[in-house]
Amino acid sequence: MPLVAAALTFGSFGDILEAARIAKRIIDVLRKGGGSREHQRIILTLNGLCEDMAMLTVVDEGHFSIRLQTEIDLCRSLMTQFYAEIKSHEGPLRWVWGVVSEEKELASWRLQISARRAALHDVLGSLIVLMSTFLSAEVSRLGSEIRQLGSDVRQISKISPHDISDPVFFVMDPLGKPITIQLSRCDSFNALDRILKAYLCNHPEAGSRYVERGDYSIVSSEGVIIPRLKLGEKFRAGIQFEMSIIKRRASRMIIQRCPHGHINAGAGEGSWANCWQPTCGARFQVAKLEASAPNIEEISSPQISQQNPAEFNDRTELEDRKESFRLVQMFYVGDNILNGFINRTNPLPDSSSRRKGVMAACSNCRRRKIKLRWQEPGVFTGDDEQGDYHVMTIGTLGPTRTPGL
């Protein structure tokens, strides 16, 4: 009996299993007792009851009603009584068969079992109708949700990507290609530095080696180098910046002229003079040392400043032959250059004053001042963003286009 086996194996309710087990024992006893017509009828009735019990094992526990539980209890009680009646007759086997073979008693038991089956069918039928109604409602609800989801997906697919976007700004890489950066992911120079290093990684043609060691500046659309500490204040939607690669070259040559044509060796503090370089001839005024100056960020490249001069020259010469970028800043710094420049420009009274630098008026714009700083080789400064000073290291050649670009 496969259904009975299924009930005994996979049944989830103890009462159902118990009733089915007892019915199975009764069937076994009746089969051994003979083959009378009433025996076969009650065996068929009990088999039907076991099949009904097996069907109940697939009913979800959440829909297991009180009425159904009552009918199962009645079935189990009936099976228990019937089995107890059989087991109560001790003695020779033929005596047992004689008792159970009484047609009248067997017919009475069969009628009681049939009545229980009919009641069980009524409850089970009602339960199936309820479950069908519930499942239909669930299917309808899920279908409605699926249709709504499909409608939402279609609406989303019609929306232009430009209608839903995070505000962005742009940075032109050293080759002039725009890098799009989301404002929500970049609020400081450190964040921008990580993005640029990741974007230009393994792109030597775009100056990845310079970017990796920090030898680059961020330049505004007006051509002003922006200090790194204040760069985050400049970020806003739609703005565009440019990257300027920094190349440095150490040299033992003593400078013979003013790096920018603005300084004269004979000028003193507060005095006006003309540049001694014939090709320059610009007029300037040296400011007093106590003049206030903005707090200007200094940027250094340890990888370069720690290089051996001979090795450094060879590497930069190789880079000069292979690389050509859109914006380049050149820095010529070295002990001899600094000493030669100091000797040929404004003499300062002591070393402490030398560390403060010299302020001079710019002969080009006639408005800003120039602050020359000679601190250590390999250290340079950027322009102050307020526009009050041109701040330059010795040998700076501004952001300028590389020849041929």
UniProtKB/TrEMBL annotation:
<protein>
    <recommendedName>
        <fullName>Ubiquitin-like domain-containing protein</fullName>
    </recommendedName>
</protein>
<feature type="domain" description="Ubiquitin-like">
    <location>
        <begin position="166"/>
        <end position="248"/>
    </location>
</feature>
<dbReference type="Pfam" id="PF22893">
    <property type="entry name" value="ULD_2"/>
</dbReference>
<dbReference type="InterPro" id="IPR054464">
    <property type="entry name" value="ULD_fung"/>
</dbReference>
